[in-house]
Design brief:
By secondary structure, this protein is α/β, with parallel strands linked by helices. The chain has twelve helices and eight strands.
Length: 290
């Protein structure tokens, strides 16, 4: 018998890990398969709210906020180094702190290189993969990366300012609305909250540092791909095909390293969960609930 939402409410918790007070959402039966959901830029674990509503009866769901995002707190004296290596190490400490021994990774945007570092570090715990616009291939990088690529090539103040647009209210809203046919499906709360959290002292510079450091992820792609080949875990690649950042060839490329990967392109943009949450939840049930 399926449990009710009242029996498996969403809990909002903090845990100390890697010198960071990590905020995370948790729901479902801890004895069920665990979905570890890792968010992207510029949002937080809140992006998974519909999956929590849809899947709490069949899965154990855990979604942390990465350092620099959401409600995770990084003490000043921690002197945190905002790199993707650091985000991966914090995730390692997080899963140990809450004693997660095995999990299906749901990766999106920044969550992909962060959580795939975790998978490399703890491959025995990596039981499955859901990639929703979570890139691991060079061919998946779209033209929207042009200003960031210019910043990678020349770390000038002008090029740093050139990527700041992505942290403005209009820049964040565009990431939600681009490629979405019916924008009434989008909740403006999301980009407004993302923007408000971006206004915390020092946070914009953290994001600009992460834009620059993203180039290190490209160097990790071969290791991620080798992991896919070696582990061949059940894999669902479900992708908003109008995403200007992570384009459909990046979705199709997963089949190159895992021919059993299921690849599905959706008629939506970057934040596919905002328009296709119920459909994505159903596909997760079909592929992983058994």
């Amino acid at each position: 018998m399926n449990q009710t939402a009242a029996e498996y409410p969403v809990h909002h918790r903090y845990v100390d890990a890697d010198g960071v007070r990590v905020f995370y959402r948790e729901a479902g039966n801890p004895n069920a398969p665990t979905l570890l959901l890792v968010h992207g830029f510029p949002t937080s674990s809140l992006q998974y709210r519909e999956l929590f509503n849809e899947l709490h009866d069949q899965f154990h769901l855990v979604a942390p906020d990465l350092p620099g995002f959401g409600f995770t707190e990084v003490p000043d004296d921690r002197k945190y180094d905002y790199t993707f290596d650091s985000l991966g190490k914090t995730l390692e400490a997080f899963v140990d702190a809450i004693d997660l021994k095995k999990y299906i990774l749901y990766i999106f945007d920044y969550g992909a290189p962060s959580a795939l570092r975790l998978a490399l570090a703890k491959p025995e715990r990596f039981a499955g993969l859901i990639s929703q616009n979570g890139n691991a291939y060079l061919e998946g990088l779209g033209d929207a990366w042009a200003p960031v690529r210019a910043y990678w090539a020349d770390e000038s103040a002008a090029n740093r300012e050139g990527v700041r647009e992505a942290t403005t209210l209009e820049g964040i809203k565009w990431q939600y609305t681009h490629g979405v046919t019916d924008q009434t499906l989008l909740d403006p709360m999301m980009w407004q909250l993302d923007y408000l959290l971006m206004q915390r002292p020092g946070n914009t510079d953290i994001q600009l540092d992460l834009f620059l450091n993203y180039r290190t992820n490209l160097e990790k792609y071969p290791a991620f791909q080798q992991l896919f080949r070696e582990k061949r875990v059940p894999t669902l690649v479900i992708w908003g095909k109008h995403d200007p950042f992570f384009i459909p060839p990046g979705a199709e490329a997963y089949r190159r390293d895992n021919p059993d990967a299921i690849v599905e392109l959706l008629d939506t943009g970057h934040f596919a969960l905002e328009t296709h949450g119920k459909h994505i939840a159903q596909r997760i049930r079909e592929v992983f609930a058994k």
